[in-house]
Design goal:
Length: about 300
C-alpha cells in the first residue's frame, strides 16, 4: 500500500531569501502517529502549512492519498483536518454551528450524530449551544480540534495542540488521539512536550534549520541513540574520582555519593561492566546499590540538535 502522504524534495525559500525548508523527503503511512520535533523556527509549521495548502512550496511535490496538493488540491485538502497553533474561531457563533459550517465547507452532508460524537469525545457536548466567546482558552482549543474533525478527515495535523492547556485537558486530548489512531486516522503532530511524543508517537522526526535530520521508529531511535548510565551508590561519600578509575570517564554526583558510568548500550559488553566493578573494588570503594537509566527522548533530541 502506498504511503498516505508522500513528500519529495520539498523546499521553501521566502522572498527575503530566508530558507525555511531544505529538500524534505518523507513518507507517512496510513494509521500511524508521527511526531515532528524541533526548536522554534525549525520549519515544522511551514512544512504543515505547505501540505495543507496554506503556503506555496518553492520546489518539490506532495501527494495526499495519491492526489497532488497543487493539481488535485480539492481532493487532497478534503482528506486533511488541521488544528493550527493559533486560536481562530468565530467568537459569536455557537460551538455546534461552527462545526456544522466547517463540515459544510467540505461539501459533506449534514450529520448531527457525527458532530455530537466529536463533541462528546472532546467533553463539549453539554456546551454545544454555548457561544465560543464564553469559553476558556482550553475549551476553545477543543473547539479547534472539533472543527478539524467535523468533515471526517483521514489525516489530522496537530500543530502544538496542547500549548497553553491544563493537564486534564491534555490527557483528554491524547485519549482522543489514541481513539482516532485506532480508527485508522493518520496523525502528524508537532509538540514541545517531548514526553508526549515519547508516549504517543510511532515515529519521531527531528527538524532543525529547515532540514529533516532524521525520521526513525521511536523505539529504534531510543535504542540507536540512547545512552545508558550505570549508577553506583557508594557506602561512603568521596571528594573526587580516584586516579585509577579515570580510564572509565566516571562522573561523581554533587554530594559525592554516586559514581556515574555512561556508555553506549549497543557496544558495551558485560565484561566491560565487570572490569569496572573490579576496578572500583580495587580502588577501595564499596557500594550498597546500583541501577541503570536510559536517556530520555528529550536528552536525545537536545543532543541531536546540538550536534
Amino acid at each position: 500500500m502506498p504511503p498516505i502522504i508522500q513528500i519529495e524534495n520539498l523546499s521553501k525559500v521566502y522572498a527575503n531569501g530566508f530558507t525555511a525548508l531544505k529538500s524534505i523527503n518523507l513518507a507517512i503511512e496510513e494509521g500511524e502517529i508521527i511526531a515532528l520535533l524541533g526548536p522554534n523556527g525549525a520549519g515544522k509549521t511551514t512544512l504543515i502549512s505547505i501540505i495543507c495548502g496554506i503556503v506555496t512550496a518553492s520546489a518539490g511535490a506532495v501527494r495526499i492519498g495519491g492526489y497532488d496538493i497543487v493539481k488535485d488540491y480539492r481532493a487532497a485538502r478534503a482528506m486533511i483536518g488541521l488544528v493550527p497553533q493559533e486560536l481562530a474561531t468565530d467568537a459569536f457563533e455557537t460551538i455546534n454551528s461552527t462545526l456544522k459550517l466547517s463540515r459544510g465547507l467540505f461539501g459533506k452532508a449534514p450529520n448531527q450524530a457525527h458532530l455530537d460524537q466529536v463533541l462528546k469525545d472532546l467533553s463539549l457536548l453539554d456546551k454545544k449551544h454555548d457561544k465560543i466567546i464564553t469559553l476558556s482558552g482550553g475549551m476553545k482549543r477543543r473547539v479547534m480540534i472539533g472543527k478539524a474533525l467535523a468533515h471526517e478527515p483521514r489525516i489530522l495535523f496537530l500543530d502544538e495542540p496542547t500549548a497553553g492547556v491544563d493537564v486534564e485537558l491534555r490527557k483528554d486530548m491524547w485519549q482522543l488521539v489514541r481513539r482516532l489512531r485506532d480508527a485508522g486516522v493518520t496523525i502528524i503532530l508537532t509538540t514541545h512536550y517531548i514526553e508526549e511524543a515519547e508516549e504517543m508517537a510511532d515515529r519521531i522526526g527531528v527538524i532543525d534549520k529547515g532540514e529533516l535530520l532524521l525520521v526513525e521508529d521511536k523505539d529504534a531511535l531510543m535504542h540507536k541513540l540512547g545512552e545508558k548510565r550505570l549508577l553506583l551508590h557508594l557506602v561512603q561519600s568521596i571528594s573526587a574520582v580516584p586516579e585509577s578509575l579515570m580510564p572509565f570517564h566516571l562522573e561523581l554526583s554533587n554530594d559525592g555519593t554516586t559514581l556515574i558510568y555512561t556508555y553506549d548500550k549497543q557496544h558495551e559488553t558485560s565484561a566491560n561492566i565487570t572490569h569496572l566493578l573490579d576496578a572500583v573494588e580495587a580502588a577501595g570503594l564499596r557500594f550498597h546499590d546500583l541501577d541503570t537509566r536510559q536517556n530520555s527522548l528529550e536528552e536525545i533530541f537536545v543532543n541531536l540538535v546540538h550536534k
